[in-house]
Amino acid sequence: MSKFVTCISIFLIILASGVICPKNGSAGEDDIQVRTKDGRYRDLGDLELMTPDGGQVSLIPYIGNKAVVVVFWVAWCPVCRSEVPRLNKFSTDSRIKLIGVNEGDTTKDIKEFIATYRVNYEVVVDPDGTVARAFHVPGMPDCVIIGRSGVIVFRGNRLPENIDDYVN
């Protein structure tokens, strides 16, 4: 009984402090929302995710189908650089949609980073920190894993050691 209460308590804490939650208890494509810093909710699809080349990216098609790993990074960060090989490996995993969100670097610096470190996962730009604020990112680097249910299952300042624990 106490194990059950502990599990429910942890789930409620994660749900209450998490950023992603479904409307009306469902995790359908149109009803995943992000809780903003002021406590209001925005549809996840309202977040404008743009590639360095100006292409638009949406997380909505992946919620419910794959675990979504969102990694926030900046070009000057040594940890961000050192994690690229691991991120490249995970980007080929069919269970995962991996998106790197760069906050504040110039498009030129982002493209140089992608070329220099041979980044093979999708990268989007967050020039004014809107996406980072929506996800309550405390600083760089940061990693948020959204489980297939649409709920945040991991949050930390780097990738978890055993990512399989969070994507299955």
Helical residues, percent: 25-40%
CATH fold call: Glutaredoxin
Helix vs. strand class: alpha+beta
Approximate strand percentage:
25-35%
Low-pLDDT parts are 3-32
**N-C termini distance:** 26 Å
- Biggest beta sheet attributes: 5 strands, mixed
**CATH class (first level) name:** Alpha Beta
Radius of gyration: 16 Å
Please, could you describe this protein's structure?
Helices cover 29% and strands 25% of the residues. By secondary structure, the chain is an alpha+beta fold. The strands form three sheets. Strands 8-7-6-9-10 form a five-stranded mixed β-sheet. A three-stranded antiparallel β-sheet has the order 1-2-3, with no helix packed on it. The chain is globular. It has one domain: 3-Layer(aba) Sandwich (Glutaredoxin).
Q: What are the key terms here?
A:
29% helix, disordered N terminus, alpha+beta, 168 residues, three-stranded antiparallel beta sheet, five-stranded mixed beta sheet, 5 helices, Glutaredoxin
Q: Secondary structure elements and their pairing?
A:
Layout: H1 2-17, E1 20-22, E2 32-35, E3 41-43, E4 49-50, E5 56-57, E6 67-73, H2 78-90, E7 96-102, H3 107-116, E8 122-125, H4 130-134, E9 142-146, E10 152-156, H5 164-167
Parallel strand pairs: 6-7, 7-8
Antiparallel strand pairs: 1-2, 2-3, 4-5, 6-9, 9-10
Brief summary of the model shown:
The protein is of the alpha+beta class and 168 residues long.
